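The following block was generated as part of the benchmark described in Methods. Ligand: adenosine-5-diphosphoribose.
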Amino acid sequence: MAGPVLNVNPSDRLFVLTGAGISQESGVPTFRDGGGLWRNYRIEEVASPGAWQRDPRLVWEFYSMRRQVAAQAKPNRAHAALAAWERAIGERFFLCTQNVDDLHERAGSRRLVHMHGELCKSRCDTCSRPPFPDTQLYPEQVPRCQCGGRIRPHICWFGETPFEMDAIFFQLENCTQFLAIGTSGLVEPAASFVARARGHATTIYVGPEEPGNRSAFADCYLGRAGEVLPKMFALPDQIA
Ligand code: APR
């Protein structure tokens, strides 16, 4: 049976939201599916400002482990499909990922924002020094800034404000097609993006099971991202 097809016309603007599911076929565990590497950690105990105050060493142990997993992973066919769509429609494409790995970039995506931060960046928890690239592992000792503050992962933790929200809302208001891939639809604010878009955009979800916010989507295609996405994108015939 033929899979779903997304028809993109010259006037369309496509907003894509990705979650942990798109990296699952690269071997990066999701958060809320059973099992996986994160099962030894309760996410609230390692991904919140309270956790950082209580036990920064444990927080760095968790993010060091995630840096290692992400470094070993390779982009999969779903990441590659999105990068190809971007090449085809340029500035009419916008990718918002909740993922902190860099698999989208490594597949070739450029028009993207990481609303929950980036695994391979760190910043000081005290001074205003900008976030900087950092792939080091700190499983034992919490690194220090020159100012005396502690270096923390450049990640949006529970209770913190996600990054790039102005750009995201602008793109949501202006899109004509909204496609969410591999996200459980349980974590705000991303879970409400579809509701903001659906008044003026077609809304589609792709993943192996229905997300928690299924009722907000017009269409839901059940399948793994790496199987569905490569066949999904159709451009209208170009006029010579
Ligand atoms: N292809 C597509 N989707 C998949 C695949 C796959 N191969 N495998 C699993 N999924 C789907 C699952 O069905 C699930 O709905 O990916 C989703 C993963 O959900 P979560 O683990 O909740 O991840 P996500 O929605 O990205 O979490 C949001 O929560 O913990 C925080 O900051 C963290 O960014 C994360 C946020």
